[in-house]
Amino acid sequence: MSKGTDHQRRRFVGQMLALGGGLLVAPTGWSRTYLSVEQAQALIWPGVALTPQTVKLSREQRKAIQKASGVRVRQSEMQAWRGAEGQWFIVDHVIGKHENIDLAVGLDRDGGVSGIEILVYRETYGHEIRNDRWRAQFHGRNHQENLRLDQQIRNISGATLSCRHVTDGINRLTHTWNLVLRTL
Amino acid sequence: MASLERCQPLLGTFVEISLRGDCSEDELLRLSSAAFAQIRLVDEAMSFHRPDSELSELNRNAAQRACLISPALREVLAEALWLSRLSGGLFDVSTAAKLVHNKQLPDPGIRVDRRANWEDIDLQGATVRFTRPLLIDLGGIAKGYAVDQAMQVIPEQIQCTINAGGDLRMNHWQGQRVGIRIPGSDQLRELPMCAAALASSVSLQTRNDVVIIDPRCGSAVEDPRSYSVFASTAMRADGLTKIAVLGQRRGDGELLRRAGGIALIIDADGEVTELSGPTGVPEPQALAACS
């Protein structure tokens, strides 16, 4: 390796460490809000008038859903909306690694999943930076708008999180449709 | 200036799309839907988990006859084989049989030749034939490709970040920063973006989401450190993380340099080191972009 490239490499690593030093972020409750319920409704059922509908699951129904889906039913009351042609829009909650994930699920008149949107994702891992000296490091270049801190700091990479609980939650809902919603 | 963040469960992970631009929120919703549709297409075509995917069909038939494949699958396979050649087989999409054996992938019930490797994948134009029976899994590269495809539908003037569970791409990446989780902790290490795409990987059996198989011995790599690779496309970065993890074991940083990637290792203390090797030096232009 030539001296020049060695120097470059060390300088590069040095920059990384300098930038990284002191930027460890204390773990805090981390949550990220995506779409509103109204936005998710318009995306999953565009142009469909949805009416809120109270759905209460009896103890027996919960047991039956749990048996059919293999997923524990934690809530006895569902947050549901219904369209004129038998469409359903449900706001559901599943436990992620530690905290709740709120999601919206559309079920069509045959109980098929027509759309899934994560509404709120809460997790307990390190979060946002409030370090103003970062601002000086941003060159901005041709995108001044990027200087907004809230845009800067939310790019969470490496957080490969299991989706299994969401998949379980969807299974629970399709079985809920089959055992309860389709007869309402 | 409107902004929007959306997240859907796709590709076996959470795919997050963040958009920001001088347009209506409805336009951002429309663009994000188009981007998610691209990801869904890749998921449907290249998933090992779906028996009806184009990949599963290829796995069932290519040992018997040459199979015509879509341009998308061709693009991913060509990149995979290029990475295999570059790394002397460190990157190998034909390790699926090992993952099936370890019960990390569903068993499609197809007999394979244990001697088969990437060199038995004969890609000629738009056709593929396996010269020995084998199983391809594109889990180490297709997620990045999906992110790249989704980015294609976003106009340049819209700022966009797509993050598929650690495969991340930004169209306006200069001066941006990312937080990478420190392995075994719930803290983040902040780094500057050094290229348009970043992929991060930890290979531990105890985490059921990421496993990297060493094709030389067939066993899963246990390395508690996280490997992050910056590259110009998410597919390249995705593939190179596997080479970074495996290459590190033989101390070869040269591979990454040749592939145009920058690899950083983050250990459990949050210490960041560049993947070292005989000439493990980032490209000068990448350095300039980072500084």
Give a structural overview.
The complex is a heterodimer of chains A (184) and B (291). Helices cover 34% and strands 24% of the residues of chain A. Chain A is of the alpha+beta class. In chain A, strands 1-6-5-4-3-2 form a six-stranded antiparallel beta sheet, sandwiched between helices. The model of chain A is unreliable at 16-29 and 125-162 (pLDDT under 50). Among the domains of chain B are: 59-130, ApbE-like superfamily (T-fold, Orthogonal Bundle), CATH 1.10.3980.10; 173-290, no CATH class. In chain B, the strands form three sheets. In chain B, strands 1-2-6-7-10-11-12-13 form an eight-stranded antiparallel beta sheet. In chain B, α1 runs antiparallel to α5, α3 (71-86) packs parallel to α6 and α5 packs antiparallel against α6. The radius of gyration of chain B is 19 Å and the shape is globular. At the A-B interface, α1, β6 and β7 of A face β1, β2, β6, β8 and β9 of B.
Question: Features of this protein?
Answer:
heterodimer, A: 184 residues, alpha+beta, six-stranded antiparallel β-sheet, 6 helices, 7 strands, 34% helix, 24% strand, B: 291 residues, T-fold, eight-stranded antiparallel β-sheet, three-stranded antiparallel β-sheet, 8 helices, 31% helix
